[in-house]
Specification:
eight-stranded mixed beta sheet, 1023 residues, alpha/beta, 27 helices
């Protein structure tokens, strides 16, 4: 761009963000141990100089020791003596260039920091912070219009700061602007670190963009924020609230000439986009949508709906059927993947009209299931009213005479509005429903009601109101504990009624929230209200679906092709048992067959349902009602934060959840699921999948309702550092149980490349163990593995030191943490387990082959390589010893040819005593090659009445030394020595007494009292 063009562009826009400042130097910053200077593209680095002075001293030249380029920007770096930052002082540095000098006075010393802000790009303010003293990096706070946000700890790598600073470049942060700050109005944006505040000034996004659909699945274009800096920004493809692809803006010559922007163009690669995708800039949920891609099927349905809504449906039925015929013939076999650009869809809002819905008839097909049928009809009959609501109960030739007798008595009672019918032969669900549909009165709506449901009072009335709230609604379905996409409190998996409440209580809570109906891809047939006009157009359920499953989806999708929509009656709840008519195996077989046929007929359907589940528009309602119901019944929540991977930590959480406790004390379990979090509430009987923000919203609501919240941290991997920071910010007190060594060993079990205990070397040696990656996911801190572990260790140590209490299940574990991290006051308390007394097992002397059992999953850290080496040596030397693994091994193929090693496979804990009896070992060998922190296997083996042999390391050795019940072998990999010891162990264990575990677990209060009593005790004196 010429100088004249650039000047004209400045005059036209009145904005100069995208124009580099005059001269070679863009900016200079003093930071810990250095001065960093950023140069403009046209700069001559050799023409730039630096001088430095301290508190009145004369300036002296500061040599530039490094010139480098990062991300297309040229930098100069000069080293700084760290001693200059040791005490409060003022440093004066000057950046000189031809004809100009820029001087800055910077206060240094404790509490002083440098903040550098890159500017707002895509709704995110990025920057970096550096301490101008020996203090650690402070957290930073986003400040918008004087409102300060939550603290964010710097941890993003800024390569331009990697020289000289003690943080090694991990100084960066990204602060997402709240949605209300991206409303197009000016807002004052700043960042605070300690007492240092740096401001962007007034900011309001001003996007300019253009989109071009080059091919069916390729989209290109350009976008930039006139109010933001000329830096690469992200363009996101967002589908159903989740990012499915992203590209970064890049240079394009014509855009540089037109707009003076170095970074504005973007292109999504072929195959990256599907129908229903938004093209957006900025944070998900708060950014600006610049385009929406609609599929051909979606467009055809929108055309049909435009024909349906203005007048009587019958007047346009012929045209809409012709549209559907073309859709089926030309588009649907290929999946309808063609894309067209459109404006983002605007959700429909339906105010209450006060219009009285037409009469309706509930059709209840019956086949056996007497107890469910009684509960269903007890809830249905009170809702019947002559000329308003009636019911047809149709017995599909149930072979159960008790059902026949009950329905005969019901018919004889002549309940108003009730008709009882019986099929002469079994017609199946579809045949029975279609028989009922043929008996509808003219203009009468229909409600399909499964006989294994229990309706809340007024459920039928509210379903009718939802279905007739606006024109063009074909069906309405209530929420339920078992209704796939309409599940409450979670979905799509079925669960028991929340808190054991009846449908009336849950229904009342939903209604109190005053929600609007929500458009859904399909109704759900357990309780489906069907608009008579849609029934007349679509017809009854297709008999091609055999005995049932997917028939109501077929009906709903046909209605959608004709322009109708389906809604969730969000103020209504119906309890659903589910799968009464078929056995589980038969049900799954029918469902699999019919689902495959459904997807063949409607290839778009699965994507639509998956998208609805991902977007979950009912989530805010679910969480609000869940919070209100919990608030009325609990006063305290202890949330156990785990990894959800099973093993000892998960077993511990399950044990704690089983301890006796006050009725108003709820125990929750949180586990990571990719971008989501899985929350299970024990007493409530609820499982929900949440985005992090939803979790914190639920906790906020519970706390506001007077529920005391405390946390119990059992694992840190799997969680983004941002989630951990918010959970463990100090707002809620938390305890940490040390189940393993994940807090200072990235590989968790202190096992090195030899597949053996590493002996815990210093961190600079530990990092070599992580160069090829680790087997555990530390989320956004995975990038720290393989390099220096200082930042990772600092985060973990900060979490541990911020805990209200640290708990170790063994003294050995506490001592290792105390030595490595300098922690004190760790409470040593065994896990709160109990054992049912095992039947007395006769102990008898025997000769021949020594029979050794190993229990559990024998992975690498459990000594798999050692066990294989022992078995191979024993076979080679024909030693009289045989091994049986009750469980699995790390590599089944490695042991298939070993004649003296048998693997039984996975088992349930309650099966272990029987499996041990069948293996009939002389003892159980605990082969772990790491210092286990407790060992549930040891408890299980003792409970079953067997002695143990273990290597002398970790908690098992500590427990055997204290309780007896076994033999300890020196901790070694010498297979010759160990084989001799294992053969000799049978005789040495002949008279060993097996310790008894407590017959009953403590109550939760007793267990917590033990922790409080042990906390702060010197480790050598701990319980």
């Amino acid at each position: 761009m010429t100088i004249l063009k650039r000047a004209r562009r400045i005059a036209e826009t009145g904005r100069q963000w995208f124009v580099p400042p005059p001269g070679p130097v863009a900016w200079g910053r003093l930071y810990n141990c250095g001065i960093l200077v950023s140069l403009n593209p046209e700069a001559d680095p050799d023409a730039v100089g630096l001088t430095l002075a301290q508190s009145g001293e004369r300036e002296h030249d500061l040599p530039i020791e490094r010139r480098f380029t990062e991300g297309g920007t040229a930098y100069l770096h000069a080293a700084l003596d760290p001693a200059l930052l040791a005490a409060p002082a003022t440093l004066r540095f000057t950046v000189t260039e031809p004809g100009r000098a820029d001087q800055q006075r910077v206060a240094v010393g404790p509490g002083r920091h440098t903040l550098h802000l890159d500017g707002v790009v895509g709704g995110v303010l990025a920057g970096w912070v550096s301490s101008l003293s020996a203090d650690p990096l402070p957290p930073v706070h986003l400040v918008v219009d004087g409102v300060e946000g939550e603290p964010v700890r710097p941890g993003i790598y800024r390569p331009e700061l990697r020289f000289g600073g003690r943080e090694g470049g991990w100084n960066g942060f990204r602060l997402v602007l709240p949605p209300w700050a991206l409303d197009g109005q000016p807002h004052t944006i700043a960042v605070r670190a300690g007492d240092t505040v740096e401001s962007v000034g007034a900011y309001a996004p001003r996007l300019r963009s253009s989109l071009y659909v080059e091919a069916p699945n390729r989209v290109t274009g350009w976008v930039f924020d006139e109010a933001g800096p000329d830096r690469p920004s992200l363009v996101r493809a967002v589908r159903n609230g989740e990012e499915v692809a992203q590209v970064e803006t890049h240079p394009r010559a014509d855009l540089l000439d037109l707009f003076g922007r170095h970074s504005a163009a973007f292109a999504f690669p072929p195959g990256a986009l599907k129908p229903g995708t938004d093209i957006a800039v900025g944070p998900i949920g708060a950014g600006e949508v610049i385009g929406h891609l609609r599929g051909t099927i979606e467009l055809a349905r929108a055309e049909a709906r435009a024909l349906l809504l203005p007048g009587a449906p019958s007047t346009t039925l012929k045209e809409r059927r012709a549209l559907r015929d073309r859709l089926v013939a030309a588009v649907r076999p290929g999946g309808g993947a063609r894309l067209a650009l459109a404006a983002p869809a605007v959700p429909e809002v339906w105010p209450e009209t006060g219009r009285t819905p037409p009469p309706a008839c509930a059709i209840v097909p019956v086949y056996n299931g007497l107890s469910d049928l009684k509960a269903c009809l007890a809830s249905l009959l009170p809702q019947l009213a002559p000329r308003r609501m009636r019911a047809l109960v149709i017995d599909d030739a149930s072979p159960d005479a008790h059902v026949t007798r009950y329905l005969d008595d019901l018919a004889a009672a002549q309940h108003p509005g009730l008709t009882v019918l019986r099929n002469r032969e079994n017609l199946g669900f579809i045949g029975t429903v279609n028989g009922g549909l043929a008996l509808l009165e003219p203009g009468e709506d229909c409600i399909l009601v499964n006989a294994d449901t229990v309706l809340a009072p007024r459920a039928l009335e509210k379903l009718a109101r939802a279905c007739h709230r606006a024109p063009g609604i074909a069906s309405a379905t209530p929420l339920s504990n078992n209704a796939t996409i309409l599940g409450f409190p979670g979905m799509p998996e079925a669960q028991g009624p929340l808190l054991g409440l009846g449908p009336d209580a849950i229904d009342a809570a939903l209604e109190a929230a005053s929600p609007q109906p929500v458009v859904i891809p399909t109704g759900v047939g357990f309780c489906l209200y069907m608009n008579r006009q849609a029934l007349d157009e679509v017809g009854g359920l297709s008999p091609e679906w055999g005995r049932g499953y997917c028939e109501e989806v077929d009906w709903c999708l046909t209605a959608r092709d004709l322009g109708w929509i389906h809604v969730a009656a969000t103020d209504t709840y119906v309890e659903h048992e589910g799968s009464v008519s078929f056995g589980k195996g038969e049900r799954l077989a029918i469902l699999e067959r019919n689902h495959a046929r459904l997807v063949a007929l409607y290839p778009e359907y699965q994507d639509e349902v998956d998208g609805f589940i991902a977007a979950d528009p009912l989530q805010p309602l679910r969480l609000a009602v869940l919070g209100s119901l919990l608030a009325a019944r609990i006063r305290r929540l202890t949330l156990h934060v785990g990894h959800g991977l099973g093993g000892g930590a998960t077993r511990y959480i399950d044990q704690v959840r089983g301890l006796a406790r006050a009725k108003d004390h709820e125990i929750g379990h949180l586990a990571p699921m990719g971008k989501y979090l899985a929350l299970t509430l024990d007493a409530a009987g609820a499982s929900v999948t949440l985005r992090p923000n939803d979790l914190f919203g639920l906790l906020d609501a519970m706390e506001a309702a007077g529920i005391a919240i405390d946390l119990h941290l059992n694992a840190r991997f799997g969680y983004d550092s941002g989630v951990l920071d918010r959970l463990l910010s100090g707002r809620w007190p938390y305890a940490v149980t040390l189940h393993d060594f994940q807090w200072y060993c990235p590989k968790v079990h202190l096992v090195d490349g030899r597949d053996f205990y590493c002996e815990e070397p210093p961190p600079d040696v530990c990092r070599h163990c992580t160069v090829r990656g680790v087997g555990y996911d530390y989320a956004d801190q995975n990038a720290l593995m393989g390099g220096g572990l200082d930042g990772w260790l600092a985060t973990n140590e900060r979490i541990l030191r911020g805990a209200r209490c640290l708990v170790a299940p063994s003294r050995d574990t506490a001592e290792r943490y105390a030595r490595r991290l300098g922690l004190s006051g760790i409470a040593v308390v065994p896990h709160p387990e109990a054992a049912s007394p095992a039947p007395a097992r006769p102990r008898r002397a025997r000769g021949g082959t020594v029979r050794v059992a190993l229990v559990g999953g024998i992975g690498t850290h459990k000594g798999f390589e050692l066990v294989v080496a022992l078995a191979e040596r024993a076979a080679r030397e024909r030693r009289p010893i045989a091994f049986t693994v009750i469980g699995n091994v790390a590599d089944r193929k490695r042991v298939e040819d070993l004649p003296n090693l048998t693997v039984t496979g996975a088992y349930r804990p309650e099966e272990l005593p029987q499996l041990l009896a069948e293996a009939d070992p002389d003892y159980v060998f605990l082969s772990s090659v790491w210092p286990e922190t407790y060992s549930y296997v040891l408890s299980e083996v003792w409970a079953a009445g067997y002695p143990v042999v273990a290597l002398d390391i970790g908690a098992p050795a500590e427990r055997i030394r204290a309780e007896g019940g076994g033999l300890l072998l020196p901790f070694t990999r010498d297979t010759a020595f160990l084989l001799d010891a294992l053969v000799a162990a049978r005789g040495q264990l002949a008279e060993v007494a097996i310790p008894s575990l407590p017959a009953a677990a403590p109550s939760l209060a007793e267990y917590q009292a033990a922790i409080e009593g042990a906390a702060g005790t010197e480790i050598g004196q701990a319980v």
